[in-house]
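ARCHIVE CARD
Drawer: 12
Card no.: 0347
Subject: one protein chain, sequence and derived structure
Cross-reference: see card 0346
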Amino acid sequence: MMMDRRHATGSGVPATQPSGWSAAGRGAAGAARACAVEPLETLLAEARDHLAGWRFQAARQVLAAAYSGLGRTDHTDDLAAQIAVLYAEVLRDTNRLADAQTLAEPLVDDLTARYGLRHPATVQALAVLGAVYHDLDRLADADDCYHLVLLSGAAPNGPAGRAARRTAANQALLRHDRGDTAGAIHDLTTAHDVLQRVQGAANPDTLHVAADLARLLHQAGQTRDARHLLTTSITAARAGLSDDHPLVGRLNADLLTLTGSTGGGAHQIGCAGDGAGRHRETRPGGRATTGAAARPATPAAAPYLLLTAPLAGAAIGCAVAALLGVLGILGVLGVSAVPRASGTEARR
């Protein structure tokens, strides 16, 4: 089925380069558009560079140009499939769910008809379509897509490995959306452990899943575990990304919210700069809230102050000493440093 490209107007996170696909797959359509292949590959590389640098709007514009450059070609050559899958993912990641659905549904049809359900391109497209359905609260449709992805037997280090790992996390969140919080925590913990082992603790996918898991732990009353997970994730993000990366700001905000809701000290780790964050509260390619309406449109990461305990103690000590000195001088002069409250104010 050919899609109507009038609906593809929009831009996420870099998809794994499908290195397992053969360049010879471009042969059938390649003769007609050989002169366009190099520019399209250049645009695809440029989009991935923007996504790696968290420049999502720029990536969306580049992918829109690359997708329009496919012309009337279907999605069943390698280059077209790579562009279309990433473009659908980016549309979803920037909250253009209607456009993402319009692209992803015929994309899955095309790829399934040509390659079957186990091909990396089909698996990646199914993962994106399932996440779109999930965001639209079409939970049964999302579950169907997720099952097909997880039953595909995608190799962990293969082209569709990342899609399968993220889908496992999304399916865990779907269990939570259906009311099974305990099961969701169990499955999401497993998904987080796998992501941490395969992609690393500082990988954005791992960090986003950690934020989701911390949220579920907090909801289940396991606040200490949630706080520990956020703290270790922030440390990993600072070491692997940077102090001013939006994800550090997002995780710090989650930690601040958690500690504030439990009456603990609002201790923040690291510094996060202004940069635009994802539209979701947590990670690209996954579920942070129930339903599209529950997501903020553009949560920019606010600056945070690094306040270590020793510095805080020294600052408080100096302030107390200075105050005592002033009170002593005023006492000698017979002056009260505390204004007398009126009767009404004294009772407040």
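Annotation on reverse: DSSP finds 14 helices and no strands in the chain. The CA atoms of residues 241 and 303 lie 16 Å apart.
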